[in-house]
Design goal:
By secondary structure, the protein is an alpha+beta fold. Helix content is about 45%, strand content about 25%.
Length: about 110
Amino acid sequence: MLFFPIEVFAQGAQAESADPISQLLTSLLPMAAIFAVFYFLMIRPQRKRHNDHTKLISELKKGDKVVTSAGIHGIVDSVDESGIIKLKIADTTIIKIDKVAISQVHTQ
């Protein structure tokens, strides 16, 4: 004897969905929707930020005011082809850092 309406619904659904293609679609459709949401909310924005940062690093030149990922403010003194930047942080202080450590370039 069936006491709960959900049992009646479950038995009716089992009798109707004997088609394997419809079962496959109903199980894969939510997975595809979840992947689409992850792509548009997480993967795509991260890829855009990465491309913007790569462009920022490739356009560095002498005299640019920059901020490193450690929070050091300075002016680019020279850019080496091997990925090393000499950063002037005081009148007589120049440090060497990697290009990838640059997080921001100020346009002022």
